[in-house]
Design a protein that fits this description.
The protein is of the alpha/beta class and about 450 residues long. The protein has 3 domains: about 5-75 and about 315-330, no CATH class; about 80-305, Rossmann fold; about 355-440, Arc Repressor Mutant, subunit A (Orthogonal Bundle), CATH 1.10.10. Helix content is about 50%, strand content about 10%. Strand 7 (about 215-220), helix 8 (about 225) and strand 8 (about 235) form a beta-alpha-beta unit. The mean pLDDT is about 95.
């Protein structure tokens, strides 16, 4: 179709539905005036690779391919004012917990899924090492603000915390509670987001923390490689196995022997974050108040000038304008029917003895509007939801045929100022129940 552009935006790119979707996109009626917005450079690279693999297979089988969709990198945004530092919330949290300036709160805001977000173990190892390096000068505390989807996840966090960071306190706060989220972002000293899971593609939480004025310690992973600059925090190096070593996961997920949770959890286990550098980052920030404040101010400015929706939306609007220009300038017209979404009575045209109605065939009424109402009610047309036409529509068409000379669909459409196809659908139903009849 050349009447409009279709523009989508990446979210997770790891599910089989999305990976298969890229193949279907290239095989479908997609054009160069459509776009897939990639939220980070890493996601762009992954999506491009997915499309390249699809193109290799499709071209080998069918020869030629249409131009690819546009794939700009445009990040997600937030409303920075929603995450502004709240001194009252900070005071409430720290007073309730009995903390002083020597108590350093490392916080995270996340879905707390070891198999779908991050493995907390390496983080806890790093925090324990940082506490050991700090000695008695500073006391580290970790707050996980989020939602546990199951007892498995809750137990992983609590048991790993007790085992791996015995000298660092662990506290869970409900991520569904807006007050808790405000207290954590306002009362924390350092924000961390040690993602090691392919489910994550951008990372909004660090942007929210930056808007609250917190320095951040994150893994050097996907979107955070774009969003976290050296002036606002630390990106900790990550490492994975070579592609061939991940073949069991790829084949297992494709065949269905691995669920998506198992697939992403196993890949997380094959991803390493440098715990030594992570520990050093926590220790350095804990010791240096000036560094925390300087990074926090830079983070706040960075979030507002780059990631506020007020800056992101105009970039998207510019893209849509560019797509419209490409569409208008193109000589290609794609008017072919969609093979995976065909017109039903094109696909099933052979089922009926007459596959369609002409708009010049005249009809006369043989029934009444009241009969139509009784039939509609008895047949319970609207009870299953989304009826083929509203009762009022059928009544208007029926009324237009009562006590009048015979009329065809084209005449009714002109008289009622409706789409002829709506009239055709209504006439067919009236004909179905003998409320009208063709005039010889």
């Amino acid at each position: 179709m050349d009447a409009y552009s279709i523009c989508g935006i990446t979210h997770t790119t790891a599910t089989q539905a999305v990976m298969r979707g890229m193949h279907d996109l290239r095989a479908g009626p997609q054009a160069e005036w459509d776009a897939v917005i990639c939220t980070s450079k890493s996601v762009h690279a992954a999506t491009l690779r997915n499309i390249e693999l699809a193109d290799e297979a499709l071209k080998a089988r069918f020869g030629s391919l249409p131009p690819r969709p546009q794939m700009p990198v445009i990040p997600l945004g937030i409303n920075c004012d929603d995450f502004a530092h709240d001194p009252v919330a900070a005071h409430d949290l720290r007073t309730r917990l009995g903390w002083t300036e020597d108590d350093i709160a490392v916080v995270t805001l996340s879905r707390l899924l070891p198999y779908g977000k991050f493995d907390p173990g390496p983080l806890f190892v790093a925090l324990q090492r940082a506490q050991t390096a700090l000695g008695t000068t500073k006391r580290l505390h970790f707050i996980a603000c989020g939602i546990f989807s199951d007892d498995y996840s809750r137990n992983v966090f609590s048991e790993c915390a007790a085992l791996l960071m015995p000298d660092v306190s662990y506290l869970h706060m409900d991520g569904a509670d807006a007050t808790a989220r405000k207290e954590v972002l306002s009362g924390g000293d350092i924000f961390t987001f040690p993602i090691d899971n392919i489910q994550e593609t951008f990372g909004l939480a660090p942007i929210e923390a930056m808007a609250a004025g917190l320095p951040v310690v994150v893994s050097d992973w996907d979107g955070m490689r774009d969003t976290v600059t050296p002036d606002v925090g630390f990106r900790i190096p990550t490492r994975t196995v070579q592609p061939n070593a991940s073949r069991p996961e790829g084949m297992g997920y494709l065949s269905g022997s691995l669920s998506y949770q198992q697939y992403s959890a196993r890949l997380s286990s094959l991803t390493s974050i440098d715990v030594g550098q992570m520990a050093d980052a926590f220790a350095e920030l804990a010791r240096n108040t000036d560094l925390r404040q300087r990074m926090g101010r830079a983070a706040q400015q960075h979030a507002r000038t780059v990631y506020d929706w007020a800056n992101i939306i105009p970039v998207m609007q510019d893209l849509w304008g560019e797509l419209a220009q490409v569409r208008r300038a193109s000589k290609t017209v794609q008017s072919r029917a969609n093979p995976v979404g065909p017109l039903p009575f094109d696909l099933f045209a052979s089922y009926a003895s007459e596959a369609h109605m002409t708009h010049s065939e005249p009809f006369i009424a043989t029934g009444t509007v009241q009969q139509l109402r009784e039939i509609y009610k008895a047949r319970r047309i609207g009870k299953i939801g989304n009826p083929f036409e509203m009762q009022t529509t059928l009544e208007r068409v029926m009324s237009a045929l009562i006590g009048e000379p015979a009329k065809d669909i084209a005449t009714l459409a002109k008289e009622l100022k409706w789409n002829p196809l709506t009239i055709e659908r209504s006439v067919l139903f009236l004909l179905k129940y003998g409320l009208i009849t063709p005039k010889d």
